[in-house]
Amino acid sequence: MQHSLPSSSPRWRWLWNSLGWLWVGLGTAGIFLPVLPTTPFLLLASGCFMRGSPRIANWLHAHPTFGPILTDWYQKRAISRKVKIRATVMILASFTFSIYIVSFVWLKVMLLICLIVLLCWFLRLPETESVAASAENS
């Protein structure tokens, strides 16, 4: 008896595609809302679409706004300096606001610890090199 992979049945493809569109929606909102990060949602969407619909995954990777972010991550495991700076500012702003509004000291401490751990990991991610700044273009 042959077992099919979960992503090959119509129900699983529908679930993967639905989750993919949810992540695309949140990633799109993240472009305009400072609290939502765009890149992680796009990576989740890409993974879902790879399982549910390769055609939509290809569209997402070819998208003029989303495609470069995904390509940098999948090919180089890196993000652009612009994305890194913008994300760092948004991470700091959202955590600072959260720490300010919570009333429990233990929760403030936990948020501060999460902020430090997140920034230590995030700031160590490699950055893509700018082609315009390379010696070949001088």
From TrEMBL:
It comes from the Bacteria. It is a multi-pass membrane protein. InterPro entries: DUF454. It holds the Pfam family DUF454. It is found in: Cell inner membrane. The keyword Iron does not apply. Keywords: Cell inner membrane, Cell membrane, Membrane, Transmembrane, Transmembrane helix. Its main location: membrane. The chain crosses the membrane at residues 20-45, 85-103. This is Inner membrane protein. It comes from Salinivibrio proteolyticus.
